[in-house]
Amino acid sequence: MKKYLPIAGAMLAAAVTHAHAQSSVTLYGVADIGIEYLNHVPDATRQSSNLFRMTSGNIAGSRWGMRGVEDLGGGLKGVFVLEGGMVLDTGMASQGGRLFGRKAYVGLDSNAFGQFTMGRHHNLMFDLIITYDPMYFAPKYSAFSHDPWLAGRVDNAAKYTGKFGGLTISGLYSFGVDSTVANGSEVPGNSRVGRDMSAGFSYQAGKFRFGGVYDQLNGNSASKASLTERRYVGAAAVDVGPVTAYLGYRRLVSQLVTTMSRTDLMWAGANWNLAPNFALTGAVYKTNDRTSARDPISFVVSADYRLSKRTDAYVTASYTKNKSGSALSANGYDGSVLPGENQIGAVIGMRHSF
Question: Which residues belong to the signal peptide in this entry (predicted)?
Answer without folding.
Answer: 1-21
